[in-house]
Structures are given as structure tokens and as C-alpha cells.
Amino acid sequence: MAHHNIIIPTKDKLFNLGEFSLRRPGNLVTAVILAVGLIITVIRFTQGIGSVTNLSDVQPWGMWIGFDLLCGVCLAAGGYFTTVGCYVMGMKHFHSAVRPAVTTAFLGYAFVVIALLYDLGHPLRLPYMFFFPGTTSVLFEVGLCVATYLTVLFVEFSIAPMEWLAGKFPFLLNWRKLVIRCTIILTIFGVTLSTLHQSSLGALYLIAPGKVHPLWYSPFMPMFFFVSSMAAGASMVIFEGMFAHKGVHHYMDATHLREADEIVFSFSKAASFILFAYFMIKFTDMLVQANLPYLVSGYGLWWLVEMLFFILMPALLYAKGSRERNLKLCRFAAANTVLGIVLNRFNVSMIAFNYALPSAERYFPSIWEICISVFVVTMVVTAYRFIVYHMPVLYEHPDFKDAH
Amino acid sequence: MNRRKFLSILGSAGVVSALSTAREAKAGGTHSFPYYEGSYGVLHDTTRCIGCRQCEAACNQVNNLPKPQKSFDDLSVCATRRRTSAREWTVVNKYVVHGKPVFRKLQCFHCNDPACAAACFAKCFQKQPDGSVAYDGTQCVGCRYCMIACPFYMPGFQYDDAFDPLVMKCTFCAPRMKEGKLPGCIEACPMDALTFGKRSDLIKVARSRMRKSPGKYVDYIYGEWDAGGTAWITLAPASGTATAASANPAHDLHPLDLDTHLGNRPIGELTYGALGAVPMIVAFWPVLFGGAYAISKRRDAIHEAEKEAVAREVKNDISYVVNTAANKVAETHGPAAADTVRQAASDALKVCERPLRS
Ligand code: SF4
Ligand code: SF4
Ligand code: SF4
């Protein structure tokens, strides 16, 4: 059987933590990052935000918003992208990609919220937004949608831990059945919420017309953020898959392995179209807003770099890769896209933000801010590994073979 | 400016711009903050200001702010371009405009329809009937979105406070006003550069000053309309080159860091298109994706039916072939042989998982 060399936890042996104690460089690096992260966490929460960040009154949002929130949410778009493809559009062969995508999306959002707590002056007051709802605020809408979507993702994801624990706690089976029956509703709910908050992340900056450089500021920023999140979702599935095949290959069953390449090519084709569309709307927006003159400046050059090398180029590479069924090329394009999305979010939130201020007042993240971001990513990876070692994410649980 | 306004009406909806335009027309009305008729304001006449920093000292004192390292008597600090912060709610900067020094006091403008209030997701800011924009720190989450939103870069944040960091800005001395006193900075000004009064009166005062001294002022009351209008308004001196200046007030205002590109609508309105699209998406997306789901289901059903039809046909063909062959064998070799043929065919078909039923 395809399963015989995957370690599947049983009723009597629920845990499979051996992987974490292996003396491998990966585990060592993880341990060091987590230790450093914990120390900075203590400093941050006892000495204040100012003690570890370069944030200032002119740059109130830096790395922790620009990377952890904007990129985190966008790169977790694989969840809605894959579930819509599989369940709504009926692409059945995406099936083995659904669970890994939902898992990473859930972890992504959960850790976005955790990372946000570092950035908030009063982290414990986060629920105040529900007690004193500022309904005129885009941030309120983002918060509401992210909170709801995190719940939806938790429910969608919960099938995996329940299959893991069902042997010991049989009552979980009922809940599991209920969730599976609601799959399509959850999926549609999820894509609606995702559309809203992915676009709203762009809408956050609509209120700062004088601060974001005109080449990036546009009334259509919400649309740009949403369209690019689709490309990010597709690319992240490929990008993560690449690492999963390296690190946790031995937890993948035959179905997963058989479908993996086909999924890469399908997603590549989709991503290629989306990126072309994204390129076109951004380019048209530049013309419509009469921003052509800005192109002959430093920022103009930088904008062109983003447009040509991080949107158009991956679009072309994806098209070529999926047509020639070239796995390596598709993966390269995925990495290129992910990098491009990060670059775009950095541009809007940091590089092209406060563009008119003298360089002395401009922001560059402190080493500690970057460390916390790395710390958060490492926590996501570690949690992902824990889940994959224990739960049927990359394989189908033998007890639940038929059930999808 | 008009171009931006046009675009924001046309397109800030973003995802479903076409759907949201109808909504947006209404949004401006429903979301607006009240604009209080008899509210107070302050007119800052920069032509009278001498950069003595008395207002800074007074603000520091009446609000019990931490003492600065350099005393308020040190006028050299005006030369560096400063901004307001959590410890300095007002600062006086020196700008050199066409060779002449001009001093300008910076503090929260107390906008009529403030961007900070539109941006806050915990409703901390409130425009008050007295004209001030009040901030309630007890419900502040510390997200600092108000600071992103303020087009004047006014609010400061207590980054060094670990346990109760708050946003800080000029309060218009609302507590003093309640006691019937003037704001600290206004009381302290020895040059009468700051005039307190009803905002509507102050606009008239500003106009009459311009009329009385032709050529002295830029023909522009900063804050009358900017960003939807502000309670604190500013008059700036005209530069010597009067013709150029009157043609374009920005020419004389930009050197004072007064941004004339903010438009005359409240900044918060820029986001109403996107917010207006929310209910549309909530209503439309489930129908759209539900429809897509129904179509893909239907497509699967049709596909299944077709597959079944083909299978049935194949089955019929096979039984026809086997029966014809068996009948032929029965004629030539007898019924026993025909049964053997049927059995053999059935076994062979079983192997390729197509049971023969005849
Ligand atoms: S100046 Fe800034 S902080 Fe003051 S009311 Fe206006 S938007 Fe708010
Ligand atoms: S009104 Fe009060 S708080 Fe505002 S600048 Fe003047 S003294 Fe300071
Ligand atoms: S006290 Fe009056 S004259 Fe002195 S700096 Fe302040 S505004 Fe100018």
C-alpha cells in the first residue's frame, strides 16, 4: 500500500515528535531563531515598541505591518484560491492540494494576528474594535473580515486534527461529518471574506493620497491588492509545494505525488493569466492617471523594475513553463511572483511611502524588527511541520479513504 | 485635484467599481461627521509671528508635558524642521521664503471632518461642538492608523511607553475652554499672531486683513476648504513677486509646508467608495460563486450521463457480438459449445471489469 511507510499516529501513540529532535541543521536553526525571537518578545513587551523598532511619528507602520500583515495575508491567499478551484469550479484534480493550502492559510492568518499583537500599542485591547466599532474605518473592515475568515479557516482546517484525534475521541466524528457537509458554504463564505479583506488591505492606503507615491497610489489600489492576491495564492501553493517535497516528502501519499505536478501546471497557467491581467490594469491605471512623467525619475525606474521583472516576467515564465510542462521553470516563476508581491507591499507601505520627506526622516527597519518577522515565519514553518507529522494533510487517512 | 476627485468617485470602489458608484453617492452623506455651525477656531497670522516659542512653552506648561532638553528660550531650534510629537503638541518652525524668514506654528488643525476620526477603528476621535477634535485614549488600541491618515502629520505616539502608549496631539485645550479660559498658546502669544474666535468670524477677519493690506498676504486662507476645512486656519505672507503668487498660491504656501493638494473634501471620503462596495460584494459574491458551483455540478452531471450512455452502447454492442457468435456456434457445434463460448466471453470481460449480462 501507498501508506506503509508514512508514520500515521494511532490511538495509543498520538505523538510523533521524533522529527523535531533529530540533529539536523534545520532543527538547529529553528531553535536558534525561536530563542532569539523569544528574547526580543520579552524586550518588546516590557520596554515598549520604541525599544526594538525604528518606527517614528512619520512612519507609524513599518516592517511588522508591511511584511507580517500585508504580505502575510496576501501570501495566505492559497486557501481561498485552491478551495474555490476545487469545490466551486469543480477542478477535482486539485483535491490533494486543498488540505495543504487550507493548512498554510490557517497558519498564515493565525500568525498574522499574533504578529499584529507586537505592533499594537495596546494588544489586549484588540477586541475593542467590536465594542466601539469605527464603521467609517477601512481597518475596521479588515479586522472584521480577518477575524471571521480566521474562524472559517479554522473550521475548514479542523477536519485534519479531528481525523488525527478521532481514534481517541470518537465524538469528533460527528463534528467532522458536519464540517464536510458544509464544505461548499464555507468555501463561498471564505472567498467572499477574502475578496473583501484582500482588497481592503489596499484600501487602507487610500486615505493617504499625499504620502504614497503617485505611481503606487491609485483609487484602484483595492483592486490591485485583490488581483495580486490571486496570483500570490496560486504561486504560494507551488512555492510551498517545492519546500514540502524537499522537507516532508515522506509524508506524501501516492495520490498526492501523482497529482502534484499536474497541480503545478494548472496553477501556473492560471497565475500567468492573472499576472497578465494585473500588469495590464496597473499599466492602464498609470496612463489614465497621467503618471507618465513620473516614469523618468528614480521612483519611475523602480516602478518599472517592479512591473517588468516582478509582474511581466513571471507571467511570461509561467506561460512558458506550463506550456512546456517544465516543473523547474514554473517553480522559478512562483518564487519570482512571491518576491514580486512582497516587493509591491514593501513599496506601498515603506519604500514609496512618505516619498516626499527628506531622506533623514525616512524609515529603515531595525534588525530587531526583521528578527521578529523571521521569528514569525519560523513559527509558521514549525507549526506546519507539527501538523504534517501528525495529521492527514499530505496523505489521506486510511480510516477516511472515501470521505471527501 | 479635480482629477483625483473624479477618479475617486469613478473608481475607488476598486473591486466592483461599477456596482458601487450608486452606493458611493449616498456614502458621502451617510458617513459624514457633523460640522458644528458655531464652533471655535484659531486664525494663525504668520506675518505677525516672530518665532519666540512662547506658545510652545505655554502648551508644555498647561498640559504638563515633559520638559525638553533645550529650553524654550533657545530660538535656534526653530531653524531645524520639526514636527509635532507625543511630547511637543505644538512647534514653531522657521521657513525661509524667497530669502525672508517666516515662522509658522504647527499643531493639530482640528479638521471639520477629520481623517484621523474616519480612520480610527475604535472610535477614539470625535469632532466636538466646540470645534476641537477630542481623542479618548481609554479605548485606543494603538494601531496608529490615525497617524497614517492625518494628512498634516500631526498625531504623535508614545513609542517608549510599554504599558500604556497613547496617541498624543493638541487638544485645543478643551479642558481650559470648558473653564472659560483661552487655550494656553493663544494666551501666551505676545504678538497677537493667534486669534481665537468662532470659525465663521475668523474667516471674515482673515478676509478683512487681506483687504486692508493689499499685497501683504497670499490670497488663500489655508484651512478654509483644505481637506474639508479645518478649525485652525492660517494666513501666509505673499512673496515679493506678486503676480506669480496671486496666480498660484501653492507657490507661496508650499515653502511653509502647507500642502495645497489635499482637495476640498474630507480625506476620509477617499475610502468611502471601497467601504461602499462591501455590502455589494457580500450580496453579489455568494450568488456569483453559488452559480459557478451550480454550473460545475451540472457540467459534471452531463458528463456522467454521457459517460453512462457510451458505456451502455458499448455493452449492447458487446452482447450483440457475443450472442451472434454464440448462435452461429450453436448452429455448427451444438448448444454446449455455444455455452462454452458465452462463458469464455464472460470470463474475458470480467477481467477487464465489464460483466456481461445477457
Ligand atoms: S490635523 Fe490630523 S490629527 Fe488633527 S484633526 Fe485633522 S486629521 Fe486629525
Ligand atoms: S491649544 Fe492647547 S494643546 Fe493645542 S497647541 Fe495650544 S496650548 Fe497646546
Ligand atoms: S507666541 Fe505667538 S509670536 Fe511667539 S512664536 Fe508663538 S505664535 Fe509666534
Q: Would you mind describing this structure in some detail?
A:
The complex is a heterodimer of chains A (404) and B (358). Chain A is mostly helical and 404 residues long. Chain A has one domain: Formate dehydrogenase/DMSO reductase fold, CATH 1.20.1630.10. Chain A is 68% helix and 0% strand. In chain A, helix 5 packs antiparallel against helix 15, helix 8 runs antiparallel to helix 9 and helix 12 packs across helix 14. The mean pLDDT of chain A is 93. In chain B, helix 2 runs antiparallel to helix 11 and helix 11 packs antiparallel against helix 12. Chain B has 358 residues and is mainly alpha-helical. In chain B, strand 4 and strand 5 form a beta hairpin. Chain B has two domains: 233 residues, Alpha-Beta Plaits (2-Layer Sandwich), CATH 3.30.70; 77 residues, no CATH class. Chain B has twelve helices and nine strands. Chain B is rod-shaped, with a radius of gyration of 38 Å. The longest helix of chain B is centred in the C-terminal third of the chain and has 62 residues. Chains A and B meet through helix 2, helix 4, helix 6, helix 7 and helix 10 of A and helix 1, helix 4, helix 5, strand 6 and helix 11 of B. Bound molecules: iron/sulfur cluster (3 copies).
